Amino acid sequence: MPMRLRTEMPELTGVTEWVNGEVSKADLKGKPVLVHFWSISCGLCKKSLPDVNALREKYKEHDLQVIGVHMPRSEKDTEIGPVKETIEKYELKHPQAIDNEHNVVDAFENEFVPSFYLFDRDGLLRHRSAGEKALSLLQKPLEKVLGIKE
User: Where is each Thioredoxin domain found (predicted)?
Assistant: First the structure.
């Protein structure tokens, strides 16, 4: 069952390795947070990575914190070297949790990639979406959480 709206953000613990800096729930207190689950073996995920970067840059002045979580879908996906190469290739400058044991995945009750979980400044889940249209479905809830008027 997917994580329910208005649920408090889970801890980001049990990560195999952090890239671009480790982040804890305490570090994110009082900030809007977008958690993005992706996988190296997911073509749709790779296609959307530049869009995630654009979102990060567009809303950084609104204090949006973007956290990537690499969710392996097969044994081959647990190889850290290729994941790090992909992070570098796609210029993912925000913190990336390599979650080979699925600890963060399980805490978020996540099943799909790509998927997005948007938390407000109080740390409550305000939106979640997954799949091909996940990014387009995110736009309006994101602007609402950030207090941006159209």
Answer: 3-147
